Amino acid sequence: MSKTKIVMLDDWENFFSSNLNCPDVAEQIELQIYTNHLVKQDLYQAITDAEVIILLRERTAVDADFIAHAPNLKHIICTGAQVRNMDTDAVKKAGISTSFAKGGDSKSTTCELAWTLILTAYKQLDSLRISAKQAEWRHSDFIPSSLKDKQLGLIGLGSIGQKVALVAQAFGMKVTCWSPNMTPARAAEHGVEAMSLDELMSSSDIISIHLVLGPTTQHLLNAQNLSLLKKNALLVNTSRAEIIDPEASSLP
Hints:
Residues 116-248 form the D-isomer specific 2-hydroxyacid dehydrogenase NAD-binding domain. With 252 residues, the protein is α/β, with parallel strands linked by helices.
């Protein structure tokens, strides 16, 4: 019985190569894991015999050229709920099936990451750490104000944004939001005030981005609306980098 040939791409954190243990199926599969990002001929050589390809995150594009170099490919497994760099029409035309790993705690961990970044920056924790190591604990320059009554502006109020809002409300913050299809009624269901993007940008003390990247959200934040930020406002992006226009490099 021939083994199913599986190729895993972009295990750049060495997570699967270090932790994967499949004794029950070892005799049925031939698994090759690549930790380095492969391009062009190296990529084509790696996938030429693959029957199943596992894509980690969105580092390798799947297009007609990719498919042409994987003539035996039957199925693609993707981590995450969606893959932006996959030509779904080309995949369907080739008769290749796909599946997505939608489970896990990614929404909770993203919320935790957002608040880790917010608290580290707002409470100047890194400066306090350095100060403490230099025996200068509680220097007057490093006494931040409370989050209570400060305004958190959420750009996106989906499942992650809602979790971030709950934490802010526990801190006694005013929470506002904007998203392309947000309504005051929907925002009110979560104890949040809806407002225009420009109003949110200009009035928030802290802004946290929780949007899906797409044609309408790419470069959503640009030089014009970033110029509306308060002088000491904090902007945190745990979504996709492309939501912020890279040419708007200097924040106010």
